[in-house]
Fold this protein.
Amino acid sequence: MRIAVIGAGAVGGTIAALLDRGGHDVEVTARGDNLEAIRANGLALSGAWGDHVARVEANERLTRAPQLAVVATKALDAASALRDNAEWLRGIPVVVVQNGLHAVTTARRVLRHSDIVGGLALFAASYLSPAVVAVTTDGSTCLGNERNGLEVRYAADVLGAVMPVTTTLNFAGAQWSKLIVNQINALPAITGLSAQDTIADRSLRRVLTRSMREAVRVGIASDIRFAKLQGLSNGALRLFGALPLWIGQVLPLVMKWRMGSTPNPGSTLQSIRRGQKTEIDYLNGAIADAALAAGTSAPVNAALVALVHEVEGTGVFLTPEQVVARIPAG
Ligand SMILES: NC(=O)C1=CN([C@@H]2O[C@H](COP(=O)(O)OP(=O)(O)OC[C@H]3O[C@@H](n4cnc5c(N)ncnc54)[C@H](OP(=O)(O)O)[C@@H]3O)[C@@H](O)[C@H]2O)C=CC1
Ligand SMILES: CC(C)(CO)C(=O)C(=O)O
């Protein structure tokens, strides 16, 4: 099948390589050094799902009509990447694999005549250098949209043949559950530590637990029913939001255990390391926005957004002590 992957970074590069290994005719879009390296050497995948070099067609924009498209840019690049390729995406199912709350709505706004499927990657991948990606933690990709139509089934059948895929009837709730997990992204981006080392640090783990609890409480204030995802559930998250902080710290420890021992920088620190703007406004920033809309506040999440933007600007990581001093007291 002809499949397009727009944004061949950590997640898109992994999915493109798996589709190529599964015998599909894959065209990827990429930019700069990444595009040159994919054209010259192919896309090299390693890690939890084995090694494969995918000799895929690579261009800055699509050059032909696919039968299915996967969009895997960061949230801040999604609208422009979709606009650039809109002529080829008309009338086909488009899967947007993206953290945050806006993947489906943004894609629908740009592509009015395509069937949009949301995707949440529950695996972890690193974009190590141009055209080189590695899966650091195994995991499925959860697909859905609010109507759970035929396009979800179609995308799940095609992608599910080459990688682990699940579907959900509560995609909005799944986005929120994933957003709680993505509270882990900010602290590595601020300190330069891996997600596992962040959680291992007692003072950072406390900050993470506070931001996760705050995010859960904002979700509850926004009338969200959290979906089952990565061992989390609506009941478990609501309980986590209510438990004393010291007990709540068990949840980040479980997340650390699930991530395994291969250091996971998280996708936000990877952007910082490449000197790029991060999607933090769509992660902790989405919590701060939702808090405002629900008539409450999210001071820990707002402070984390500000610190990530500071590191984006200075390129200088903060020590755990500096981070703790900059987070409002609980
Ligand atoms: N990495 C991970 O482990 C996980 C990531 N996610 C989520 O998946 C999404 C993708 O993340 P990730 O793969 O890490 O991000 P990456 O930054 O590694 O990859 C995105 C790629 O898209 C490219 N891109 C952006 N705009 C365009 C465009 N207009 N045309 C062509 N290429 C473009 C970028 O190019 P350039 O480098 O030139 O900007 C980059 O190579 C994010 O929402 C992230 O939060 C979810 C779970 C796990
Ligand atoms: C959960 C996590 C941290 C996995 O890498 C992620 O979603 C990300 O990196 O954006």
